[in-house]
Specification:
The structure is a single chain. By secondary structure, the protein is an all-alpha fold. The protein has a single domain (8-188), classed as Orthogonal Bundle (Endonuclease III, domain 1). Helices cover 51% and strands 2% of the residues. The chain has a two-stranded parallel sheet. Helix 2 packs across helix 10 (162-171) and helix 9 (143-154) packs across helix 10. The longest helix is centred in the middle third of the chain and has 21 residues, at 92-112. It is globular and about 50 Å long. It is an enzyme of class 3 (hydrolase). Its EC number is 3.2.2.20. GO terms for molecular function: DNA-3-methyladenine glycosylase activity. Pfam families: Adenine_glyco.
Amino acid sequence: MNQTKKCQWALKTKLEEAYHDAEWGVPVYGDRKLFEALSLELCQSGLSWHTILNKREGYRAAFNQFDLKSVAAFDDAKIEELLLDAGIVRHRAKIAAIINNAQCILNVQKEFGSFSDYIWQFTDHKTIVGHWQSKEEVPASTELSALISKELKKKGFKFLGPTTVYAFMQSVGLLNDHTTDCFRFNACQ
């Protein structure tokens, strides 16, 4: 039986496997999708990725499909409403960070034209290929993710440390951290 090789982390659940096979590491350029990925990664902090993937549709519903202007206008009453929503992780600081970050992305759009142009400039608008042989080689953060985290914080973003930024970079294709034996490695370059 010929089994397709995949990154080891994707073999835990069918949901993670489907995400890995279709989305993880594929370059993303739309500001709404980048905002969604950034938001989901910050929500994952301290939790399993499976938990967040399970609640992704709940997040999409709760945050108006990650419409930046809509989310940026959320107020304290909306935060209280979201804290009652079982479709998402009910964590006040993370909810507030998503709203804050929407506001920050709108500011970045004014300055750079798009959040995509801003975030992709850090990799010279190219995917950085990891060439990792095993999951043990893949770092949790790098000097680049620390730099991006620092720059985002200067612009007012919250809940985005170097490890969260690194995971975001992996998810939206700024990095190709598929292991070299994974069937998605060549497709995500």
